[in-house]
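User: I'm writing a tutorial on reading structure tokens. Could you give me a worked example: one chain, its sequence, then its tokens, then a sentence or two explaining what the tokens reveal?
Assistant: Sure. Here is the example chain.
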Amino acid sequence: MSEQLPSVVIVGRPNVGKSTLFNRLTESRRSIVTDEPGITRDRIYGTAQWEGRAFEVVDTGGIVPDEKAAIPREILRQAHVAMERASVLVLVVDARAGVQPLDAELALLLRRKGKPLIIAANKVDSSGQAAHEAEFYALGGRVVGISAEHGRGVDDLLDEITRDFPPGVIEEKPRPVRVAIIGRPNVGKSTLLNRLAGEERSIVSAEPGTTRDAVDTLVQQGDALYQFVDTAGIRRKAKTKLVAEKLSVVMARKHLEQADVAILVLDGSEGVTSQDASIAEHAARSGCSLILALNKWDLAQKLAAEKMEKKISPAELREQFEALIREKLKFLAFAPLVFMSALTGQHTGRLFALIRQANEARRRRISTGELNRWLKETDLQRGSSPGARPVRILYLTQASAEPPTFVLFTNQPKLLHFSYQRFLENRLRESFDFMATPIRFQQRQKKRRE
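And here are its predicted structure tokens:
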């Protein structure tokens, strides 16, 4: 998000309605909202405008200051990073529950930051509950009673938040390339995001399923702007028990469908699993371009060296791994493969060039004239099945891009067999460089004249 915008950081103990308020202020459904506490763990960013004043909104995870466990401790660290950059701090409390010891502890922590502090007394759904607002003045900030769910009092809160903000609107900028980092839990997606972003934007933990919300960050590389989204690990439905996990998977799939490019992270120490293949199939169906990233390559090399009786060169080991991956993910033959280590940074720099090429390829348009000249010059009979009626493509045009979609007019009474479509797809890739992007076909029959 823009660094020029004033930053409003939403803080509070678990399950007081921070994410609901974030979605209300940003007029989005960016943060996951359920009754289950501890959903938001990373910093979630959005933008908002009020009465001609634009500002950034940051949703933080539910804070428990004295918690010793790794993830709550990391949530607190992430919140501290956001608070250091804040223009205004908003402490969300539960008006129904009254002042809790943890509220008082957090208020003390926030006051020490020396930033303007507003107490948002949430869940004020009736005039009777509004009477409890007064006790929150003891926390040391301006108090505003609100209902984030229903919108009550949010206008007053926005007046307080933006009181000293300069006039300004959110500048329209070129849309960044949207890149979703996908994969099953604990393969290194968050570590990769942090490596590409150059900062610790995502919580990294050995505990599977650490990321629940999709975490996004903007990265400038030369003249190009990239929006990386670290999605929750996509599990099979049978493996997701909690409501939060189920929603995380739904959100991950949603972000995948909105992405221009997806980086499918595979665990080099474990190889390709059936779950990897399932995620890959969903990504291919979503229409985004795809890059395969075999992570933990340094660990994979070490494990292979310990298991193999005779020593082989790194190049030979790469060839063996690639052959295994291509065999299990045959339908992603068009996706480039990078051997890397997100932890050490080995070969991660190659991803930016591949993302740029993949994004250009998915936007490529070929004129109808050029396509039909290509038709005349290309032998497409080799793809026909023996004994079947020879396939003739009478006319070919590109209907759309992102992903490239072609309309075929053929002499066939039925849809072309998928093997012939694959053959045709490969010939198009050879001639027009649709690297990393899926290609779709729509078939039309030539109409008989009356």
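What the tokens reveal: The mean pLDDT is 80. The two ends are 61 Å apart (CA to CA).
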